[in-house]
Amino acid sequence: xxxxxxxxxxxxxxxxxxxxxxxxxxxxxxxxxxxxxxxxxxxxxxxxxxxxxxxxxxxxxxxxxxxxxxxxxxxxxxxxxxxxxxxxxxxxxxxxxxxxxxxxxxxxxxxxxxxxxxxxxxxxxxxxxxxxxxxxxxxxxxxxxxxxxxxxxxxxxxxxxxxxxxxxxxxxxxxxxxxxxxxxxxxxxxxxxxxxxxxxxxxxxxxxxxxxxxxxxxxxxxxxxxxxxxxxxxxxxxxxxxxxxxxxxxxxxxxxxxxxxxxxxxxxxxxxxxxxxxxxxxxxxxxxxxxxxxxxxxxxxxxxxxxxxxxxxxxxx
Length: 317
Known about the structure:
The protein starts with a helix and ends in a 9-residue tail after the last helix. It is built from 12 helices and 2 strands. The chain is about 35% helix and about 0% strand. It is globular, with a radius of gyration of 22 Å.
C-alpha cells in the first residue's frame, strides 16, 4: 500500500487542521461507503474554506468574504482582498448554492468547481494563480492524505475545487419562521402572512424570487441605473441586450446579508423596497417585470417582516 495512504488511514482519527490560528478539531473515522465519502470530502472542503494559505500572502481565506455568521456574506459594499484591496462587487451569500447553475453576479461561471478558481486568481481577492498554490498546499499532510484517501491522487487543483464545491453545496437549510408557517402552520405574527401575500399575490415578486430558494436563477436588469459602469452579463456575452443584467439573488437570509445589489448600493431592505416602488431607473434593457407601485407604510412594514422571516434560526442570535 502507498505509504501516504497507509499513514492517512492509520492516523485519520487524529488528523487536525494544520492552521495553528484555528482551534484543534479531532476527526472521527468512518467506513468508506458513499455517505462517508461525501462527508469526508465536505470536511476537507470546510478546512480549505477557512485556510488563509489559499491566498497569495496567507492573509485571507474564503471565509474572510463569506462569513458564516452573516449567511456567508461580509456586510461590505464590495469584497476586500489581500493588501486590503477592494474587489469589484458585493459579496453574494453562498446559502443554497447547490440549487444554482449560474455563479458570480454576471452569471459568467457555470459550476461551483469553476467558480472556486475565480476568487483564488483575482488580484483584488486572493491574488495568485491556482498553480502557485501547489506544492504549498500539497505539502500539507492532512490535505495530501485525504486526497489519496478520496481520489487516489496527490492533492491538486482537481481535489481542491471538488472539496470546496462539496462544502458549499452543504450550506443549505430551510429552518426559518417562514418555514415554520409553511411546513407546520405556526404563525408568530400575522404581519408575516400579510407581507408574503403582498409579495406573492399583489406585487408578483415571485416571478423572479419564487420557489423555496426565492430566486429563479436568471439574469435580469432591474433598473438599478440608467447608465451602468459595471455592465454585468454584457462583460461575458458582449451582447448589448445583456447590459445591466445581473444574477437574481436568493432572498433566503436576506435580512442578514446587507448591503444589497451587485455593488452594495442599498444599505437596507427599506431602501431596496423604495427602489422597486419607483419602478427603477429607465434603461432600455430593464426587465418588463419592473413596474412602479405604491405601498402604505404599514404594507412596507409587513413586507419587511416577511423578508426578515426568511432568516434561518441560527442567525437570530
